[in-house]
Automatic annotation (TrEMBL):
Protein source organism: Paenibacillus terrae
Entry annotated with the keyword Transport: yes
Domain called ABC transporter: residue spans: 8-238
Recorded coiled-coil stretches: none
InterPro entries reported in the protein's UniProt record: AAA+_ATPase (IPR003593), ABC_Ni/Peptide_Import (IPR050388), ABC_transporter-like_ATP-bd (IPR003439), ABC_transporter-like_CS (IPR017871), P-loop_NTPase (IPR027417)
Listed name of the protein: Peptide ABC transporter ATPase
Topology within the bilayer: Peripheral membrane protein
Record-stated family: Belongs to the ABC transporter superfamily.
Pfam families: ABC_tran
Length: 253
């Protein structure tokens, strides 16, 4: 795939409520194969709705009122709250095998084998293979690994991540981000990564789009954009990040 043929192209996307209240206006994005683009910005700026419209999962009452979305690869999505993304009444391995069965069109037996391989790829404990465990019996981080495995079972060309670590504690956040980065290198999918955390965005994405009030107000390569933001809102967003104290200097005092 070359620069003339992106894996995902969103052109002038506009979304509105049925009463015609605009929520997202003229959002355009181009994502090349294997590339990671971050959508950052304040709460309510339209990041999640943009992501949901790409995979065709807009909440009821919200409609696409303009623009086009073209993708040349399968999309899969990881949501913010892994527990709510799973069926509480079904053992997790069975849920994963169901996704493999339907998406990869293999026999039930092969689906279970692939599901077990995915558990291993995601670094989940062997004990899950032998006992039926329900989502409530797993930690938040383990549930998110299952959700990521389900997304990978769709063999996505594009992985849409909607704040996938926000509901997890910080040490687990780091592990999940590392897992996503490793799998992206191994499997080569592109990503659109929604987060309000600039540190997460900069570690996961080579390009960023800053959203405010339903529009992209600034975009660019991650480092230059963070080092030299042009838009006053981007400047405010960056200056709002609390720095850690200079630990080396503090130790000398
Ligand atoms: N189901 C809905 N019905 C009506 N308005 C909605 C609905 N879902 C979202 N909105 C509105 O659309 C706008 C964009 O919401 P969206 O969830 O995309 O924001 P966001 O940038 O992802 O925020 P956050 O970081 O808090 O998740 C907000 O004003 C929100 O209140």
């Amino acid at each position: 795939m070359n620069a003339m043929n992106p894996i995902l192209e969103v052109e002038n996307l506009s979304l509105a409520t049925r009463s015609n209240h605009k929520l997202v206006t003229d959002v355009s994005l181009k994502v090349e194969a294997g590339e990671s683009i971050g959508l950052v910005g304040e709460s309510g700026s339209g990041k999640s709705l943009t992501l949901r419209s790409i995979i065709g999962l807009l909440p009821s009452g919200i409609e696409q009122v303009g623009g086009n979305i073209r993708s040349n690869g399968r999309c899969a999505m990881i949501f913010q709250d892994p527990i709510r993304a799973l069926d509480p009444l079904c053992p997790v391995v069975r849920q994963l095998a169901e996704v493999v069965y339907y998406r990869q069109k293999v026999s039930r037996k092969v689906a279970r084998t692939i599901a077990l391989e995915l558990l291993e790829m995601l670094g989940l404990p062997d004990s899950l293979k032998h006992t039926d465990r329900y989502p409530r019996q797993l930690s938040g981080g383990q549930c998110q690994r299952i959700v990521i495995a389900m997304a990978l079972a769709c063999k996505p060309g594009i992985l849409l991540c909607d704040e996938p670590t926000t509901a997890l504690d910080v040490t687990v956040q780091r592990q999940i981000l590392d897992v996503i980065s490793r799998l992206q290198k191994e499997l080569g999918f592109a990503m659109v990564f929604v987060t309000h955390n600039l540190a997460v965005a900069s570690s996961m994405c080579s390009k960023l789009c800053v959203m405010k009030e339903g529009r992209i107000i600034e975009r660019g390569d991650t480092l230059p954009l963070l080092q030299n933001p042009q838009n006053p809102y981007t400047q405010l967003l960056i200056s709002s990040v609390l720095p850690l104290p200079d630990l080396e200097r503090s130790a000398d005092l």
